[in-house]
Amino acid sequence: MAKLILKNVFKRYENKDKKKKKAVNPLAVNNFSLETEDGEFIGILGPSGCGKTTSLRMIAGLEDITDGEIYIGDMKVNDVDPKDRGIGLAFEDYALYPPLSVYDNIAFNLKAKNVSADDIKKEIDRIAPMLKVEELLEMRPAKLSGGQKQRVNLARAIIRKPKLLLLDEPMSHLDGKMRQVLRIELQRLHKEIKCTTIIVTHDQLEAMSLADRIAIMKDGELQQFGTPLEVYDNPVNEFVAGFIGEPPMNINTVKVEKTDKGTFFKFVDADIAIPVPDRYLPVVSEGMKVRLGVRPTDLMIGDENSKGSDAKISVFENLGEERKISFRVGTEFLTLVTPDEKRYKQGDPVKLEVKADKTHLFDVETGEVIRAK
């Protein structure tokens, strides 16, 4: 095991603007700093193009660093060859050698290091049951399913006994059921090999279920780094709030209105009003516009005695174990999720309630969280 430390890491690609005939230097990774603990499972999460895979490739040594420092354990690895960094890397597309058997694919790196055949067999006998590929050793990659290929890919990465295991979108080519199976296998594998592990993914469910801590990136910059519970319950900005959670958080523009009945968040373009929680009263004022965030699970339909807002159902979806109900708010929707088995239809009037202590506020201009006092 080894700690991974990134200090103010930048990656700039030199591109030529054909129209202006000059070099432009977009930052693929911008001042990225991160520190892990020994044996920790870290997820780097973000949309396509956010810089997460570029960051992984710099850690692996497959991309040069424009600026900054990367340490694996106590060793600064900026100028260290990939083979000498003590890493195992499992690629998104498996990258298995078609002419070789599964046995020889797994053994390839050890053979390149002139490890004896007996020692290679001993290691494969140890690794194969761990990845459940012992019955596939004589087969070739063309005969394997996607899940089996990824298991072989992982076996090849960990047979080197790496200090750091890097996983680049390892489940992106698998179907939903197989992804669920492999997530469980990865959790088990991580506990068995006790290796610091970094997984890059755009799937927030993968990151939330696997990682001890998650680094969320956008446009090459780190937005937030924390446990799954921290980033879910206390997002630092609107981007993180909307990216984490399924269904995503409702985020709508509201205006603060004071009446003789109290202070309310009034939805723009909709007759829905929510009482302002006491904790927000010191940081909002009459007429102020903010972005209000509410998780779908923190919205409820009240009974006949409810004091909630009047609303009409726009869409009702029965998803089996839960129901998803949406209300039109101008050009957007406000969505709630409930286990209640009651059925509704479009146009049904209901009382909409909100768990006030679960709401989030964001600045209209910057998207940064507005902290309650």
Automatic annotation (TrEMBL):
Name by which UniProt lists this protein: ABC transporter ATP-binding protein
Source superkingdom: Bacteria
Annotated GO MF terms: ABC-type transporter activity; ATP binding; ATP hydrolysis activity
GO cellular component terms listed in the entry, alphabetical order: ATP-binding cassette (ABC) transporter complex, substrate-binding subunit-containing
SUPFAM superfamilies hit by this protein: MOP-like, P-loop containing nucleoside triphosphate hydrolases
Domain ABC transporter, residue spans: 4-244
Pfam families: ABC_tran, TOBE_2
